[in-house]
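[09:14] KT: can someone run the structure on this one? pasting the chain below
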Amino acid sequence: MLASFLTSTPLLSESWRLCDLANTMPSQGFVAEQTGSLGYLAFSGVQLVAGPDPTSARNLEPLLTSTNDLFSPLQHQIDGEEEEGQEPVMVHAGLLRVFLSVYSNPSFQNQMLKILEKSKSIVISGHGIGGTTAGLCALWLLSYLQSISSTISVLCITFGSPLLGNESLSRAILRQGWAGNFCHVVSKHDLVPRLLFAPLAPLTPQLHSLLQFWQLSMTSPHFALLAAKLPDESKAEIFHTVLASLNGLTQAEQGKKVNCGFSPFGNYFFCSEDGAICIDNATSIIKMMHLLLLSSSPSCSIEDHLKYGYYVRKLTLQVLMRTSFPPRELPESSYEAGVALALQSSGIACQDEHVAPPAKACLKLERRTGRTPNLNCANLAIKLSKIAPYRAEIEWYKASCDQSDDQMGYYDSFKQRGASKRDSKVNMNRLKLARFWDNVINMLENNDLPRDFRRRAKWVNASQFYMLLVEPLDIAEYYRTGMHRKKGHYIAHGRERRYHIFERWWKERPIKEEEQKTRSKFASSTQDTCFWARVEEAKEWLDNVRDESDPRNQARLWSDLDNFARCASELVERKEVSKDVVAKNSSYCLWVRDYEELKSQFVGAPQFPSIMDREVVS
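[09:31] RB: done, structure tokens below
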């Protein structure tokens, strides 16, 4: 669908036209154009003629160490946590410096402001090194637009772009739902998108000459004659090194992870003289890169980097003329016929006994198994309706706790619960709901749900309602079982990852006008879902300040206590808490009484308004 969309609209041809124009203007670094509400931005692939070769080394560096929060959403790829053993998001150091130098250019920043003011959609493109600059620009722009809740759409189209970052970058982009915003056009034999799979340090002199040839050829086609001056031995050495590295990656035993440092992300649009295929599975992308290169030669792999204009024109004409090139004998199965047509579109001959069979297997691997994301989402909605009784029973339990004569409220009743059937049933429902929502997150991170799933109001609201209702019970169980003494307090050491994710979804939603109105009665659920965890920490501070003899430590504890008392009092004043918070025997009210009593023993200490006499509005 993406391939058909790109080739049947002006997006692909216009993006290449601007890339070609940018390549002839290396001093400027980029070109911009506005067509109605559609803004185009294209980066030159000729940016480092006098500098170090960005493809001559494979050094990666963390994306978030020196970029001043330009890519802050990717920092939360684990949503507030670092998974054990997982690398941080990393990108090629040299390519990152190219983007940062462009980004710091006042001309670029002024141009981006103009585009943002006039555009509903923005297409960012680049050829070669310009493609990686375009990719980083798109990631920055997506991060910025997310921070301001903008509805401007972004599409990044690259032509023959080198790989940019590691597998953690690919995962972070998937988690953000941005993979569909990237389309990497790769010609059948082009060596550049495959270069960083190989160890390139021993080939630095040859790569320097090769990069200079590419850049000079982009600047002016007349320099293409320089190709004859590149020694055949150098071409062959680079070609076979890359081919051997790709062969090693694809021949690894199934299930064995081979880490070359770099990983593809987004959609790869492999084009040939016979058509194009679009692939978004990283394993399939690497295998297809290898198989297509097997049918190439050193000279062809170098010259193909300069032929994207030819491929784009060829694809556009094929769509306009509605021509196709089916094999003489198509299989009866529509699926097998589709695989055969895709194989031919990739430029691989069906008669090639060495390449065609593994290429077919690769294309079959790319075909999504099981339900499609939309069907998964529909099935998930059915499951959501089936767990509604569990949620309803917890709501009933909360209402009965709030009306109980012991006046402890929802949180403390569950924390101090006995072995009754009712309490056990509520605890079981809490665990069942947790399993459901953890499964939702796993499906989303495995790309089994629609890319806009986390922005759909149905699921944002459902996850928020779940968090408001159930997280207080998780906090109660955490402190009831003494986990805070083993692991530390809940917020820093015990909070489940799903709550970090749902909190971010809620913050990124469009805020409705009625949500900003002042409350006239207490909320049905406390809006700060970690409120009771903060109360538990404050209870410990109160115990510590009684026993503390060091004046400095005592002053620090009093500062923490005063800050919490002030913030909690403001929440109550704004009625952003449930009425169980102000129940007579709730942990919070007991803490307030202890705090005020201890505070009164200090001469001249500030006093906070008591909540003991506040009327609870039901």
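[09:33] KT: thanks! The chain has two domains: 1-79+87-322, 372-510+519-604.
[09:34] RB: yep, looked fine to me
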